[in-house]
Amino acid sequence: MNTNGASTLTTPRAIQKSFLAYEQNEGVGARVRRSIGTPKLRNFTPFLMLDHFNSPDGSGKFPDHPHRGQETITYVLDGAIDHEDFTGSKGRIEAGDLQFMTAGRGIMHAEMPVDGMHCQGMQLWVDLPKELKSTEPRYRDLRGSEIPIATSPDGKTTVKVISGNSLGVESLKDLAYTPVWLLDVTIQPGGSLSQALPQNWNAFAYTLGGVTTFSNGEASETVVPYHNVVFAQAGDGVNASVEEGAEEASRFILVAGQPLDQQVVQYGPFVTNSREEVMQALHDFQGSKNGFERGLNWQSEIAKGHF
User: GO terms for molecular function, please (predicted)?
Assistant: First the structure.
């Protein structure tokens, strides 16, 4: 056993690669660090895109826009986001909250940071299995107060168990159609975590703060913030630690997902399995049909008056 009480992994995963997510403009006024969905890491099944967004004073608006064929997971770290779609669903998620949105056969929605508030968070796009591409759209919110927190016996490691299992604590419910584990990890100086992950799932960590050392016993790499750390598929989990003399705790998001054996053809917000299907998605959206009927002349209330 190690100091945090977790069993030592038999075969810790090696780091396949790690790279800095450079900041860029996205939406209206948003500053985004995109790592998945770039030439460095494209279509890392089942993951399509990962954005770390940072919007000062309510900027970073994403007015009315469509989706088809994927799920989005939005995790608010600071501030608050209002959302609204053409089904009539609307609401607000605040710091610590998550929203899981299934676009399915089609949805139009808007996402708007609350005016006057600094907003920071993560948005992960997850592919849908081809048999669920035409499912009806749906939302599931997860409030920060609902998320179970696991703590190591020495108190130096805490994990928000959003989805999956850590340190003997299980998440409350499955929130996405495609099986995904999502863990928000904080390690104090001198702490460590040996985190088991499902076999043969793809996995990565996105570093948010401090300095984290990932090791598989043979090699280690020390990683600073805003890097995506991609782990080899072979192995049964991930080892992470922070040096005893470190100036601050480290924080990272650890994500694992079940790979999908299917072709990915993506055109902006439309994710299909063939070129013909992505062309059909464009025609359906432009013609307000086959899932986009409610988009005809629809305008969100939350985006009005901003442009």
Answer: metal ion binding
Query: Is 117 contained in some domain?
Result: yes
In the predicted structure, residue 279 carries a pLDDT above the cut 50: yes
| DSSP label at residue 245 | T
pTM of the model: 0.93
- Render pLDDT for 140-182 as a digit per residue (tens, 0 to 9): 899 999 999 999 999 999 999 999 999 999 998 778 899 999 9
Binding-site residues, in ranges, read: 65, 67, 109, 111
Report the side by side order of strands in the sheet with 237-241.
Answer: 192-196, 237-241, 212-215, 220-223
Instruction: Judge whether 72 lies within some domain.
Output: yes
Assign 263 to helix, strand or coil: coil
**How confident is the model over 284-296, as pLDDT tens digits?**
999 999 999 999 9
- List the CATH number of the domain containing 149: 2.60.120.10
* pLDDT over 70, % of the chain: 94
- Domain range for 50 is 24-257
Binding-site residues for Fe cation:
65, 67, 109, 111
Of 81, 105, 85, which is closest to residue 93 (Cα–Cα)? 81
Q: Is residue 121 part of a domain?
A: yes
CB under 8 A, 24+ apart: contacts of 38-42: 40/228, 41/228, 41/230
Count of domains observed in the chain: 1
